[in-house]
User: Fold this.
Amino acid sequence: MIAENASIIPGETIAAISTPPGEGAIALVRVSGADAIAVADKIFRGKNKPSEFSRQLQHLGEIVDETGELIDQVMMSIHRAPISYTGEDLVEISCHGGTLVTARVLEACLHAGARSARGGEFTERAFLNGKMDLTQAEAVIDLIRAKTDLALRSATEQLEGRLGNRIKNIRDAIVDLVANIEASIDFPEEGITPDDSEKLRARLDSIREEIVALLATADQGRILREGVRVVIYGATNAGKSSLLNRLLGYERAIVSDTHGTTRDTIEESVNLRGVPIRLIDTAGLRTS
Assistant:
């Protein structure tokens, strides 16, 4: 997290719908940037202007378009820089979750001076403004896409900074080692003596072992993110579709005594002890 007086990287004010497309009770529209609160002042009609809101409190009001026509009744909150997700002034609008009304609220934000955000741009700004490191930024999408408890736990730990801290400790150890050697070369008159060769090798071996241990977890992390693709392959009527149905726990593929019932691949996902498995049932092997 950055300090209260940390500098914020300037940029255009962006807006986006932060909830999935489709109908729901509530949808969230976010606006972030130097002019985010000014945009909110233009489109919000309520007891107070957004620029007068108390920090992090929600306020009931209405969103109107550029002509003053009512779009929706909403709850709005203001998160002032740098105490926000992006590190910039951030406005969050909770509107009704209809497809059209949500699009109209976003359109009002764009007409008021914001531009449409790119995919992942809010998290990108959080990274650029020092709210999280690169490993934490990468963990956000892993957290959203997690399909098993193990994948969710791994993404949560990375978002907490555990991976970033391990990388930082390795870097600090390397910098400290190099600084000791360079200081002894550049300032011999100061009496700075580097570690002897045996101690230097021991420190380097320790750093190398830590890097190797970290790299060894890469495949595990990839499997938790992407899952394992498992192809069920064999002759016709060997029981491939029956095996798929048994592993899934329901009748997904047609099972028949007739050869060649499965004509194309059938893909489904299953959670096997916390590991996402993508099962692919294939057409039976036969002479075409």
